[in-house]
Amino acid sequence: MKSLLADLRLAWLLTRGSDRREWWRVLLTAVGAALATGLGLVVAALLPLKGHHTVSVGGGLLDRADTRIGVVAALLLLFVPVLGFLGQCARVGAVHRDRRLAALRLAGATPGQTRRIAALESGLACLAGSAVATAFAVPALLRLWHSPVPLAWAGIAAVAVGVPVLGAAVSALVLRGVVASPLGRIRRLRPAEGPGRLFRVATAVLALSVVYIVTTPFHDVPFEFALTPLTVVGVCLLIGAVAVWLTGASARQLGEGVAARAQRPAVLIAAERLRDDPWAAARTHAAVLLVTVVGSGFMGIRQVLLSVLRDEADQYAEGIGFYENGLNLVGLALLFALALVLAALAVGTAESVATRRRGLAAQVAAGVPYPVLARATLLETAVPLAPALTLAGLGGTTIGVWYGAAASEHTAIPVPYDALLVPVAVYAACLLAAATSLPLLRRSVRPGELRYA
Amino acid sequence: MSDIGGTAAPLLAARDLAKAHGRTRALDGASADLAAGEILAVTGTSGSGKSTLLHCLAGIVRPDEGTVTYAGERLDELPEKRLSELRRTEFGVVFQFGQLIPELTAVDNVGLPLLLAGAGRAEARQRAGEWLERFGVRGQAELRPGALSGGQAQRVALARALVTGPRIVFADEPTGALDSLASEQVMTALVGTARESGAAVVLITHDAQVAAYADREIRLTDGTVARAGVTA
Amino acid sequence: MSTRHILLGLLAQGPSHGYDLKRRHDERFPQARPLAYGQVYTTLQRLVRDGLAEVDGTGSDGGPERTAYRSTAEGARELAHWAGEIAPPAPFVTNEIFAKVVVSILSGGDPEAYLRAQRAAHMERMRELTALKTAKGADLATVLSADYALNHLDADLRWMATTAARLTTLTAEVDTA
Questions:
Q1: C124–B230 CB contact, under 8 Å
Q2: Closest Cα partner for B66 from B22, B25, B10, B14?
Q3: Total of domains in chain C
Q4: Which residues contact residue A370 at a Cβ distance below 8 angstroms, ignoring those fewer than 6 apart?
Q5: Which CATH class is domain B1-90+166-232?
Q6: Which of the two residues, A172 and A257, has the higher pLDDT score?
Q7: pLDDT for res A217
Q8: Which A residues in the span 338-367 are in contact with B, Cβ-Cβ below 8 Å?
Q9: Which ipTM did the prediction report?
Q10: Where does CATH 3.40.50.300 sit in chain B?
């Protein structure tokens, strides 16, 4: 206990003494943790509900058990972009933190101590976020639901405590490489890291189950059952995974091809950076791609579903309004997810600029014009995203068409043009997100930065 | 205070430069002249303002007070666009480290200023290759800076600074991170090429053995020129 | 520096006469103080006296008469012994610059001005040596002996820099002693 206190004090001292970028990480991590806690709390409040209830929010979707489960599934899916965002936040000031931890090891801290200190640092940030989210969520819940069941309270407590603990654990896990060596990663030795075994196994399992589901005949059951949300989620994840893999696998060839032919300095720099670390783009863009798949799939399904509903309006008791409302809520959740992954992308780009600021300042001092560096930064996002987003968009649209084909037994399907617009819009939004780092780039290339290593 | 022979106006002249970083006064009334083709060493203890003087002379930093005149142009008044063009074409810059782009190969790093000036890729690579050859690092042309030794990286950096045929090369502790043999190779390459091409050199160093490569030395103490060095 | 051993070393390649030895010495050790012919002659006579060298013969290729010398077996042994022996690392500190600084303090002079002037002279000599070693076609012997001198001058300079920074303390110490 005493040593834990000492570690805590050291963690606090280190956080307090660290520079502005470290504070950014703490703040962003807290925001991410607050979002995760918020999602978790809503799920924790909804899960204990059984049967029919009248809930004043959610447009009636929370009243019935079956639609409620759909909402819970959607909320759980939202964890993907939130985790992606948290992952990006962890990268802010990562180089600096790695060096600091390595210095701790050099100064004689044991691996255990270093790991604890690092975990406590993240844990504290997550705790702050989770505390804020809980403090806002519980009064809001009490206003809607006068006497929540004990199970709901237990769930709320578990989420509020679980998020910081999970944050600390993940942080300890991620930092194991740094903790192991006192010399840290002083030299930048980065073998082009491909996806881990876990990723490959998960993709394979996903692919097999999708194939199984698709090949199972469902002519004798209504198509709604065959196309359970689970299947759609599985297909989305699969296409997302393939798009991520494609980003990484194609980046090297893309980088090499572009670099060899580049005539303009900005293109050359962007292409060589791509070639140097082909999987960086895949890591950064994974969540973007997943949201694109889901987004374009959703747009396709929405279009088909609404047209089917309009054709057969008389068969449905609730009226089209109920379904449209539900679809719009899902769309809203997707927009939220998109905003989150874009924020993560912006954070990632800004971090990449901040890490390289001394080198960038040296380039400008040597006469490389700022616009060239700015173009290179944007191209770094634009080039690897183009093929991946094309695949993600096509994949998502295919889901829509597939759904439409299944629905066409009832009615004529419209072509899901809306779905095809999604990747284009996401691409533009990503470029805008990357562009948010340009003011930082301009500040980073000031000659004053030459003075700092 | 120009003490180089002849009546010709100096190529680069700084008068009464002052520059503060926050509350520290890095430069406090420093003046210096550089003749065409001259190799000038700027020495002084750590924190004496050597690097800030170089930054002002090369148009990287605008002084708070004082003037810098290069070939009739007032560097302290030029817009950033023109300064950056000057640094790219008329000046060459070598730092202790950091001036090479880590993701570009040695030959592309050297060719970068040519690409920026609008040359084609093939031409840039070819001319860059010639410079690498000259500095004995042709064999490392396709390596990235991370794979080069300190001395090789500095010779690549020199090649990049010289590839556009600059009139002045600014070198800030170019051998600061090198052992004496590598340091000798870098200095011989720098001084030899400068003398051949007639380029002037401003050489910041705290190492007397490096300063001895220069024709003349000025010493900075607390942001001012302590005393004009002895004419060679 | 032992002239006798250096001459023995030069004789190790074969018999040679005095003038030739001086020429080869100056060639082999550039930047060293050149040998005076008289010094070569006396040293050779002492080597003969101690049995380390002997007269090889006297000849005159139409010119003045010349005596050639060769190393003896004992001379070779002595040479091997000397070459393998370590040079004592600075057994006495003979520092003329320090002496001048102290004398300058004692006599109420300006040690700071002296150190500045000395520094300028050192730098000037270092520039000369650097020019010598970077000149086109400089051979390795020239480069290495220039390097040796440069490193020593550099050490002097660094010593002078720290001394200049501590002159006030030194003055107080010298004055009270």
A1: yes
A2: B14
A3: 2
A4: A364, A441, A442, A445, B84
A5: alpha beta
A6: A257
A7: 56
A8: 358-359, 362-367
A9: 0.80
A10: 1-90+166-232
